[in-house]
Design brief:
With 124 residues, the protein is mainly alpha-helical. The chain has helices spanning 4-15, 24-29, 33-39, 63-75, 101-123; strands spanning 52-57, 80-85. Residues 39-93 form the Alpha/beta hydrolase fold-3 domain. GO terms for molecular function: hydrolase activity. This is Alpha/beta hydrolase.
């Protein structure tokens, strides 16, 4: 199934050089680069953030940025669980895509992650 936000990016890239495209997601969702930067978690890493579950497909065009985010979260001393999904692109877990297998898999992972936090909190 086509990913509409990626189609916008690809159409834009045909009209623009890739090197000048600083934030394709900002373009896709119709916000300024400044707003996208303000909203992006990679620009707000600090010590003492809550435990985080981060899921990303290895074919996501932002995969390397996601890896960098996870590394920076770890370096700041935050607890982050990084789950990768081989060959999956951006938004792979959206309902209705890939016969809902990634949707169901990631939903289960979220439930396990939240249960682990509850168990950890109960034990302390």
């Amino acid at each position: 199934m086509a990913q509409p936000h990626l189609e916008v990016i690809l159409r834009y890239r045909k009209r623009t050089s890739v090197s000048s495209l600083k934030n394709p997601i900002a373009l896709a969702v119709g916000v300024s680069i400044e707003t996208a930067t303000d909203l992006s978690p990679i620009h707000h890493i600090k010590k003492c953030l809550p435990p985080t579950l981060w899921m990303c497909g290895t074919s996501d065009e932002l995969y390397e940025q996601n890896q960098t985010f996870v590394e920076q979260m770890n370096q700041a001393g935050n607890h982050i669980t990084f789950l990768t999904y081989d060959g999956m692109g951006h938004g792979f877990f959206n309902y209705g895509w890939h016969e809902n297998k990634p949707y169901n898999d990631t939903t289960i992972e979220i439930q396990h992650f939240l249960a682990s936090l509850e168990a950890e909190h109960s034990a302390s």
